[in-house]
């Protein structure tokens, strides 16, 4: 299993009030798997994704990545896994405003210690931006791009290190239907290209039903898993 959560809890303190955002969730994501997570607003989906990606620390329980307990590692080791193995696509693109599209895409590579040469990496970033349909925006800054275009840059950025897993939190949140379909196509294309697992938080039921597996969150708990597509694939 690539990612395993074992009885994971995450609690936020607001004043003296404890909000149990994720309450004892256990799950496993296999390599190459496409998993969709659905549930009402506030049910804990984003928190669960942050836990899977080692961005949020569980108060209780363990998060394993390739059998390594993420929170037993040093900060550097955990960052290395995040940068090399995980591609994050969040609802707000969070691009660096002072870098153009190409430099934004290359950024995660700069934070990792791979040995590909810099000239190659810019060529690859360019190819990724072509793949997401932004060949004429290579040198555009984020404020010169539409929301959908920024999202596509963020997807290219998430792919630069050929991630073992892509964690996408409502990547199509505020996009029109056509752009939404494009973004999903890109994520699935990336999954095919790199053999990445794809974990997608979405409010789009149709899209969710195309996944191998559907997880339902309610009040911080996983209430059920829909496995019907899985048998079709195996
Ligand atoms: N940083 C935080 N501080 C305090 N409470 C938080 C924080 N982040 C999330 N929460 C609370 O934890 C609960 C779960 O939030 P989370 O964002 O994980 O839900 P969600 O299912 O992703 O919601 P949405 O679909 O609206 O994005 C909510 O009650 C939320 O208010």
From TrEMBL:
Keywords carried by this UniProt record: ATP-binding, Nucleotide-binding, Transport
Gene Ontology terms: cellular component: membrane protein complex; plasma membrane
Pfam families per record: ABC_tran
UniProt xrefs under InterPro entries: AAA+_ATPase, ABC_transporter-like_ATP-bd, ABC_transporter-like_CS, ABC_transpr_LolD-like, MacB-like_ATP-bd, P-loop_NTPase
Source organism, top-level taxon: Bacteria
Single Gene Ontology MF annotation: ATP binding
Residue stretches making up the ABC transporter domain: 3-234
Record PANTHER family: ABC TRANSPORTER ABCH.1, IMPORT ATP-BINDING PROTEIN
Similarity comment text for this entry: Belongs to the ABC transporter superfamily. Macrolide exporter (TC 3.A.1.122) family.
Descriptive protein name: ABC transporter ATP-binding protein
Organism: Pelomicrobium methylotrophicum
